[in-house]
Design a protein that fits this description.
about 160 residues; alpha+beta; seven-stranded mixed beta sheet; 5 helices; about 30% helix; about 30% strand; globular
């Protein structure tokens, strides 16, 4: 599995995710509008100038690790002073272990003792299982900025 930060020329890869109805229904409850997708992609590119490990990454697998399967991110939540991980995989790569591997790879980029959060849709049982495999604990159910319910998972990363 290879991770590489998104750059301006990667918009077409990114749109494969945010315009995929099945994927976005599971992650955001809807697909993005073209305007929303463009605004978020521009934000991602601007944020990707930050120092490693923080940023949003394209995820590749395969023999030459050139097959694009989705995205993974490590973001800094200023409000709560914690790292957050996010990930989305194209549906044809679900239930094949890629999500578990991706979360493991993202976690290894963090510092020992760092608190990390992850948020998932209550209906996304697969994502909940991935987080629990990596030692995340369900902390609470809350609402996202659009008022939809989400589950907040947390852990303190310890490199073993």
């Amino acid at each position: 599995m290879r991770l590489e930060k998104y750059k301006e020329s990667d918009k077409q890869l990114y749109t494969q995710l945010v315009f995929n109805e099945k994927l976005m229904q599971m992650n955001y409850g809807r697909t993005f509008t073209p305007e929303e997708a463009n605004m978020l992609f521009q934000w991602i590119v601007r944020q990707n100038v930050s120092e490693l490990p923080f940023g949003t990454y394209k995820v590749f697998v395969g023999e030459e690790e050139e097959e694009y399967i989705g995205m993974g991110a490590i973001l800094w939540n200023e409000e709560d002073s914690v790292a957050e991980i996010e990930y989305m995989l194209l549906p044809k790569y679900w239930n094949q272990g890629y999500g578990t591997a991706l979360v493991g790879k993202l976690l290894k980029m963090l510092k020992n003792g760092e608190q990390v959060n992850a948020i998932t849709d209550p209906a996304n049982i697969g994502s909940q299982r991935i987080l629990q495999k990596h030692g995340f604990t369900l902390v609470k159910e809350e609402c996202n900025t659009e008022g939809a319910p989400v589950l907040l998972f947390q852990k303190i990363y310890e490199n073993r």
